[in-house]
Amino acid sequence: MSTTTSPLPDTSPLSRFGWALADSWTITLRDLSHWVRTPGTVAVGWLFPVMMVLMFGGLFGGAIGVPGGGGYFDFLIPGMFAMTMLFGLESTMMAVTTDAAKGVTDRFRSMPMSASAVVMGRGIADMLNSVVGLAIMIGAGLLLGWRAEGGLSEALAAVGLLLLLRFALLWVGIYIGLVSGGPEVVTSVQILVWPVGFLSSVFVDPATMPGWLGAIAQWNPLSATATATRGLFDNPGWAGESWIVQNATLMAVLWPLLLIAVFLPLSAHRFRRLGG
User: What stretches pass through the bilayer (predicted)?
Assistant: First the structure.
């Protein structure tokens, strides 16, 4: 009588990494399928920043002075690129919270799949969403007469800084979504996105604000990215004398790295504790 033995599964680090990527892409495709099922919601998310540009640039632009001269659209649009990265935080929080509240996340965790695939898949899908949203914003800016005057390499560097900020905010959104008790809690957190966005250099020069408020605006991570991208695009900006303003490009890298260093481990720890 003969017996057959099944080969032992390959548990090498390279094999585990490959399975993690495959599982993550499966989750990504699941998240992307929601685009097809809810195209209206996705389209509104992409076009809302364009509406903001038209509203602020068209309605208020004539009353807002641009530091050093130049058109307000040229000042506003790079800031709105950064603001668009912040808006993505809301969709990440809501998606993660909804999956957790419906038990979808727990079902995924009970399956024979990589433990990191759920959050990695969500991250990939949201980054793809942000790339499309940023491309739409750039197209809208070009139609409105905005131009990247600094050259191709500088423009690509600016896009890289914007996506780095989005990647950092992605982990903030995942963590908040995991610790929230439900979508209702996320709604209250979403309200804070607006003060964070407006208390920055996205729309106006912080020098026009009261001293203490302007200082807070200058240290806003959104301001660092907005200021750095304006410089790389060679668009009108503001040139304050503080250290944070003079080193905006450096801080546009350090702020996201700090957020990633804090919230990525927190997200991983919280995900492992779900259902515990």
Answer: 40-63, 75-96, 117-143, 155-178, 185-204, 243-266
CB neighbourhood size of 161 (10 A): 24
By the 8 A CB rule, do 150 and 232 touch?
Answer: yes
Q: How confident is the model over 9-37, as a mean pLDDT?
A: 74
CA distance 214 to 200: 8
20 has pLDDT over 90: no
pLDDT at 239 over 50: yes
pLDDT of residue 131: 95
**105-152 pLDDT per residue, tens:** 777 777 777 767 788 888 899 999 999 999 999 999 999 889 998 889
Say what angle helices 248-273 and 221-233 make with each other, to 10 degrees: 130
End-to-end CA distance of the chain: 46
Phi, psi of 9 (to 5 degrees): -65, 145
Contact present, 274 and 100 (Cβ < 8 Å): yes
pTM strictly above 0.85: yes
Alpha carbon distance 229, 159 (integer Å): 8
Supply 45's token pair.
């998310």
Asked if 258 contacts 224 with a C-beta cutoff of 8 angstroms, the reply is no
Distance, CA of 223 to chain centre: 14
Q: What is the 3-state secondary structure (H, E, C) of 38-68?
A: CHHHHHHHHHHHHHHHHHHHHHHHHHCCCCC
What is the Cα Rg of the chain in Å? 21
Locus of tokens 């195209």: 39
Any idea what DSSP says for residue 219?
T
